[in-house]
Specification:
There is one protein chain. The chain is mainly alpha-helical. The protein starts with a helix and ends with a helix. The radius of gyration is 19 Å and the shape is elongated. The longest helix is centred in the last third of the chain and has 15 residues. The chain has two helices and no strands.
């Protein structure tokens, strides 16, 4: 089955099949820092 037909059958854009999503190398550390800051300062707004 062609990529075009498979994507049409699944309702996906073909561009979603071409690139593998890549996270940042420091994403886990940034997430941990954000969690630490919210625990320290709470939420506003």
């Amino acid at each position: 089955m062609s990529e075009r037909r498979a994507c049409r059958a699944l309702g996906q854009h073909r561009s979603t099949q071409r690139k593998v999503p890549q996270g940042r190398a420091d994403e886990e550390r940034l997430t941990d820092d954000i969690i630490e800051l919210t625990a320290q300062y709470g939420r506003y707004g």
